[in-house]
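Lab intake sheet, docking and co-folding queue.

SAMPLE TYPE: protein with bound small molecule
LIGAND NAME: oxaloacetate ion
LIGAND FORMAT: SMILES
REQUESTED OUTPUT: full 3D complex as structure tokens
PRIORITY: normal
SUBMITTED BY: R.K., bench team

The fields below were copied directly from the construct record.
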Amino acid sequence: MAKDPVRVLVTGAAGQIGYALVPMIARGVMLGPDQPVILHMLDIEPAAEALNGVKMELIDAAFPLLRGVVATTDVAEACKGVNIAVMVGGFPRKEGMERKDVMSKNVSIYKAQAAALEQHAAPDCKVLVVANPANTNALILKEFAPSIPDKNITCLTRLDHNRALGQISERLNVHVSEVKNVIIWGNHSSTQYPDVNHASVITTNGAEKSVKDAIANDDWLETEFITTVQQRGAAIIKARKLSSALSAASAACDHIRDWVLGTLKGTWVSMGVYSDGSYGIQPGIIYSFPVTCEKGQWSIVQGLKVDEFSRDKMDATAKELMEEKSLAYSCLN
Ligand SMILES: NC(=O)C1=CN([C@@H]2O[C@H](COP(=O)(O)OP(=O)(O)OC[C@H]3O[C@@H](n4cnc5c(N)ncnc54)[C@H](O)[C@@H]3O)[C@@H](O)[C@H]2O)C=CC1
Ligand SMILES: O=C([O-])CC(=O)C(=O)O
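RESULT FIELD (auto-filled):
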């Protein structure tokens, strides 16, 4: 029997990531090749014409899984009945703006959109925040959408996770699918901690090895590898003069697909989720942890050994998130 369509909201849909993301969703990359979708696309008034252009292209692409398109600048209409919300829209930092000014704009956007989701989305709606500052935008959304379960509000660190897999695969000259179980801890910012202490790789002779042993260069792993992953977004912006839209869109699909359909056995992924105190990370922030997913629920991987080097880095990125949280709250007053 054909499945009922799932309603997927993409905010900021006329932007760079939105333009890469909506065709992926309509092709089944996010929810599977047998799952029909209805796309809800939201953007702001100045982008209304461009948004309509994206709608025209979606119609012209004649996607078999696409059962409807709502393109609107009305947040209530956009949120009506959505089962999945991918929040890409936000206010970018502009020349001469202070951190606090950018935070203040995004806090008010996420407060308003939280209220609209709370009122109009499906009660079990799963939310993924992509727009920066992603972890803190997600926290504000959680605060102002109290009837959406905490576990349904997440932010994107899968792009950083995939970047870490990519760097290891390039270094070892193996296919990226042979590398697994890297971890991104913390904030989607330059304080994030890409950790390979528990990662493994299938080497060219078919044997599974720890990434640390296969690389055999702790100095590289503790310096260049970490900074390359932390700075990759900035490097892409420098090269393209635009953000990493293709890889961010692909990572957003990976995040939702694994959350809804489950992670592969023996494999974990990184997701920004509301901290429950695991690994000594204080509750009250959205922090990236290693998670496995089953039946539409994520759980934090427990019991991984944390050495002193990792502890310092995990705490530093948590501290930054606490500071972002206070800044965000000060913008609410
Ligand atoms: N978490 C992650 O891994 C990544 C996050 N990002 C972030 O994703 C966001 C989007 O990036 P791009 O698509 O490149 O930016 P963009 O500027 O091309 O698109 C953003 C879109 O959001 C719209 N928008 C602004 N305010 C809105 C509102 N209140 N409601 C709905 N739409 C609104 C804009 O009109 C624009 O169309 C940025 O915040 C960027 O920093 C980018 C790459 C990776
Ligand atoms: O700062 C940005 O917009 C880009 C970004 O988050 C990333 O590529 O990781």
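REVIEWER NOTE: The pocket of oxaloacetate ion (ligand 2) is lined by residues 132, 159, 233, 236, 243-244 (CB under 6 Å).
SIGN-OFF: pending second check by T.M.
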